[in-house]
Write a structure and sequence with these properties.
Length: 166
Amino acid sequence: MAKNDPAKLKKVSVNLPFGIGGAEWEADPTERRAAWAIYVELVTRIAVEQLEADQGVLREAMDSLYKLFAIMRQILREAGPDVGASRESVGGIAIAVLNKGLRPFLTKWHPALQAWEAERPSNLSPQAHEKNWTEEPQLRRELKELNQALEQYADALAEIVGVDRA
């Protein structure tokens, strides 16, 4: 259920993660459509859902985040310059989230996890092999921190598009 009539939504003020800070602007229809597309991708992935220590496989979470990065770039490309590249625009904020949030996490953990996976004995499941990795608890902690920051970003996008985040 929408909390704001899109026609009446004039000014949006949001708080953002990754040291981006706050932003305030008048959201136009093009920015709102891009914000909605990014929002849907975020809230339907592991990006904003906690992966408990005894659940899931880190590879699946990593792949989902990697795909999210590519999809957000695609959304921004397709939306064009009308979503803006200024700091206080949907496009500018999305680029900052990619470069200050997702990119550092993926750059650190994607190759480390790949290297560990390459050492998996054929008689051990991927999940069991992950559990044997000394870095696994740290990756899960940092994934949880990333989830919380991306959840804050999803909340900001919900505010921009005028929906209640369930």
